[in-house]
Design a protein that fits this description.
Structural class of chain A: alpha/beta
Shape of chain A: globular
Helix content of chain A: 25-40%
CATH class of the largest domain in chain B: Alpha Beta
Strand order of the largest sheet of chain A: 3-2-7-19-20-21
Radius of gyration of chain A: 21 Å
Radius of gyration of chain B: 19 Å
Helix content of chain B: 25-40%
Number of domains of chain A: 2
Strand content of chain B: 5-15%
Largest sheet of chain A: 6 strands, mixed
Oligomer: heterodimer
Structural class of chain B: alpha/beta
CATH class of the largest domain in chain A: Alpha Beta
């Protein structure tokens, strides 16, 4: 903690004029990847390159040998607030987010109470504005109380600020309700986020395969994912709804999404950073930090997810950040809560794809910024002049050791503890304000 | 993970006994050898040996059991240890006290060993990872994962009848999916060098990719029994009739029940084993359970010797140091 300074309070002006100089500016949306300065004022990007006339920087950030890119946008981030503040609060978790370079995050509606009414949307926005340091977007519940029976007031929720709708981890069992929900969402141009889970086959805690067999753990077969994806793809074709599939976990799922995209269906998909780097083998002897939903699958699945990311079938990478108390992981594997406190390792794990899949730095950044912004239909994820000054500055060559005790998140639940990762965020700016900065390394 | 076996201490000696997986052949042979002298203790006038005098052993059973708990208790008493039996019904843990909280309370009472049975796979590993370093943990069955002392007593019984493991054909029949006994037996048999381990059951009761553990899968009992040296029948839980795993008991018995006619397909000197308690007429005919090829009761007796061996190997040496 000692090397971190929260500068927010130190700066008198709320949105000071800032110049970030000498950095390698990467903005995939505008095809920029070059050394260039960038200037911010009144919370917006006002110039690239030369300092504009009459511009006096109150703060200059020297980004030599560093990358300057749009702030990351994380489409899957469980904030646990309201409802489970002992695990994570908007205050703690948005601070963790900006420490990971994330300036905008999108949380699913399975909070307590559930986000199925406009008042909840307003409450979360208010809390984010007063207590938080990152932008917090919300997805509305697809059905009332996520019960899969009655449609939520998704249009009102959209007007209140929800950027999409989802039934989160609670699959809509009734095909008829799912059809109607997709039709209704399509009528109002609302993107439906789908976590593909066939409920009858999902009563397990690990991938159904060699490891679950060896350890005697109840398995979740790949077909639990593919059956659900197949059903919903048929319904998407029928209804014309726009859908985003969350957290693919298997090679077959990637294949199904690829086919659908080739047929012209309006579908996108994401993958978590941990599914790109872990497999069922990492469970070892019941490591509950590897208990995640969907489960970690085989090396072949991991390889397909990586390739899908590179080829663009998988549009973006998410953290699926799930802060959990230490007790939640201290039980026999099946009884532990699923999830990883992932936002603080999102960027370096994504950057590993440069070496593993021969992706370019710009391609990786695109999948963390521009692509998720497109899915949410928000004008972020870019360094265009006039855009919100949401910026991440990181050292792409800095190695660091993951130490869960140093996480700003209240959740210390990470399977990456002790991993040496490359790429460290040095500054995060949200709406022109420096919300995170490390001292020079 | 696998290279870092928490079951052994820095000197490579037995610290916990949680699963067969992770042990080399010689470790298992050592346990079998250590059990040999104990196998005859009960024939002596004084059945006790003083190896664990002054040690306190806690039987921590989160799941009901009579035989296993009793044989562990007898084994501990024959080694002169003090034994505390704690049966924790599910209602007690549902008070909100976590497994580990309960454990730390017991630790505070300065016990030397926990013998744990729990309905969740991995419970014994979890406990071993979190108890104070002076305490040994023996797994008496965790979920569908492991029941290593049962597997060792089965190996002990096989060795008494068959001497050499290498050329044996061993058939394990029944609900492999839910069986911690089967998983441990498979690891023990393959580690001891048995070349042909056959598991038999309908696909609903055979876990996916079980072949990766080094076994051959059969769905036809008669085909699997041909030339078998050892036939291990597993207990079929009544609740398996629910959830569409099986159509009926009678159909199961017809397909997978061991009858005298089917047993004739095995070698004439084949032995028949069962971890108990047996369901007569569901997985095995009474005439076989009580017949000359059955070693089922011998298994129970050998269970005491094996458990004495495992306990004395894990706990006996701290006495050496003192």
């Amino acid at each position: 903690m000692s090397d971190i300074t929260q500068l927010t309070s130190a700066i008198s002006s709320k949105n000071p004029a800032i110049s970030i100089i000498n950095g390698r500016l990467i903005d995939p949306g505008n095809r920029i990847d070059t050394q260039m300065d960038i200037h911010l004022q009144h919370g917006k990007i006002i110039a690239l390159g030369k300092t504009p006339e009459n511009f006096v920087a109150q703060q200059v950030i020297d980004a030599s040998h560093q990358v300057v890119c749009p702030g990351l946008i994380d489409l899957r981030f469980h904030i646990k607030d309201p409802g489970y503040e002992s695990k994570g609060s908007i205050s703690s978790e948005t601070r963790a987010a900006v420490a990971g370079g994330v300036t905008a995050l999108c949380c699913p509606p399975d909070t307590t109470p559930i986000i199925d009414n406009a008042a909840m949307v307003k409450l979360i926005r208010l809390k984010a504005e007063t207590e938080g340091v990152a932008k917090v977007y919300t997805l509305s519940a697809l059905t009332q109380q996520l019960e899969g029976e009655k449609l939520s007031e998704m249009r009102k929720l959209k007007d209140a600020g929800c950027v999409g709708t989802t039934n989160a981890l609670r699959p809509v069992k009734s095909t008829l309700v799912m059809r109607r929900a997709l039709e209704y969402a399509a009528s109002h141009d609302i993107t439906v986020f789908i976590q593909a889970v066939e409920p009858w086959l999902s009563d397990g805690c690990a991938h159904e395969g060699a490891v679950s067999t060896r350890l005697g753990l109840a398995g979740i077969p790949v077909s639990a994912e593919t059956i659900a994806i197949s059903r919903d793809l048929q319904l998407i074709e029928l209804t014309g709804a726009k859908a985003h599939f969350c957290q693919l976990s298997s090679a077959k799922a990637v294949q199904l999404i690829k086919q659908a995209q080739q047929e012209g269906l309006p579908v996108t998909a994401d993958v978590t950073a941990h599914h790109l780097h872990l497999t069922e083998m990492d469970i070892g002897y019941f490591d509950s930090n590897c208990h995640v939903i969907p489960p970690l699958r085989t090396q072949r699945d991991q390889e397909a997810l990586r390739q899908g990311l590179k080829s663009g079938i998988i549009t973006n990478i998410v953290s699926d950040h799930q802060p959990l108390s230490s007790d939640a992981k201290l039980a026999p594997f099946e009884e532990t809560q699923a999830g990883i406190s992932g936002v603080e390792t999102l960027l370096p794990l994504a950057l590993k794809m440069i070496e593993l899949q021969e992706m370019s730095l710009s391609e990786v950044i695109e999948r963390l910024t521009l692509q998720p912004a497109k899915i949410l239909n928000i004008s972020e994820g870019t360094l265009a002049i006039g855009a919100d000054a949401d910026i991440c500055v990181f050292d792409p060559e800095a190695y660091w050791l993951v130490d869960r005790k140093k996480f700003l998140s209240q959740g210390k639940n990470t399977p990456f503890h002790g991993w040496e990762l490359k790429g460290k965020v040095t500054h995060t700016i949200k709406s022109g304000q420096v919300v995170f900065a490390t001292e020079t390394l | 993970m696998i290279s870092n076996n928490i079951q052994l201490d820095e000197q490579g000696r037995l610290k916990h006994f949680l699963s067969i997986e992770g042990f080399k052949r010689q470790h298992l042979i050592n346990i079998l050898d250590a059990a040999e002298p104990f196998a005859n203790v009960h024939e002596q006038a004084v059945k006790k040996v003083p190896l664990l005098r002054g040690k306190t052993i806690v039987n921590l059973f989160f799941e009901a059991s009579t035989r296993t708990r009793t044989t562990f208790e007898l084994a501990a008493k024959r080694l002169s240890a003090d034994v505390l039996n704690i049966n924790i019904s599910t209602s007690a843990t549902s008070k909100g006290e976590s497994l580990l909280d309960m454990l730390h309370n017991l630790e505070a009472m300065h016990c030397d060993m926990f013998i744990v049975r729990h309905k969740q796979s991995g419970a014994a590993h979890l406990i071993a990872q979190h108890v104070s370093p002076l305490i040994s943990v023996i797994n008496a069955g965790d979920g569908c994962h492991s029941h290593p002392t049962q597997a060792m007593l089965d190996m002990f019984t096989i060795r008494r009848h068959k001497k050499d493991f290498a050329d044996l054909k061993v058939v394990i029949v029944g609900d492999i999916l839910h069986s911690r006994v089967a998983r441990s037996q498979i690891h023990a048999l393959t580690t001891l060098g048995v070349s042909a381990v056959r598991v038999v059951g309908p696909k609903t009761l055979i876990p996916t990719q079980i072949e990766t553990l080094g076994v051959h899968v059969y769905h036809d009992l008669q085909a699997a029994l041909i030339d078998a040296d050892v036939v291990i029948m597993l207990r079929l839980q009544k609740e398996r009739m629910q959830g569409a795993l099986l159509p009926s008991e009678s159909e199961y018995y017809h397909q997978y029940g061991l009858t005298e006619k089917k047993l004739k397909l095995a070698k004439p000197d084949a032995i028949v084993m069962h971890p108990g308690p047996i369901n007569r007429g569901v997985e095995i005919a009474s005439s076989i359970a009580d017949g000359p090829q059955s070693v089922i009761l011998e298994q129970v007796t050998n269970g005491i010797a094996i458990r004495m061996a495992v306990m004395s190997q894990t706990l006996g040496r701290s006495g050496e140091k003192a």
